[in-house]
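[Meeting: bench + compute handoff]

Bench side (C.D.) handed over the final construct sequence. Compute side (W.E.) agreed to return the predicted structure before the next meeting so the bench team could plan truncations. Sequence as handed over:
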Amino acid sequence: KSIFKKGDTLFLLPIYYAGGTAQKDISSQMLIDAMGEIEFSALAPSNREELLVLLNPMLIKGSCVLSMGARDPSLANFALSIKRHIETLNLTE
């Protein structure tokens, strides 16, 4: 069962590799493909800038953008850049 509903969009950015012996043989697009048939949209932007561009037409007043990740020390700054980006948009309902 999915917590996503029709009309929701999941964005999976490129996987952050923190070094070490981690395998680099999987991509965000591969994860999306493995989901099979889903009732929501799932996209794998190639970078953070592309994500912001893709968000523009989707956002309306009251939209929720949830950012999650692990071990990437730049995540907090990225979350702030999403917030600043949204604040520059003239969102309507």
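W.E. noted at the follow-up: The chain has a mean pLDDT of 94. C.D. will use this when planning the next construct.
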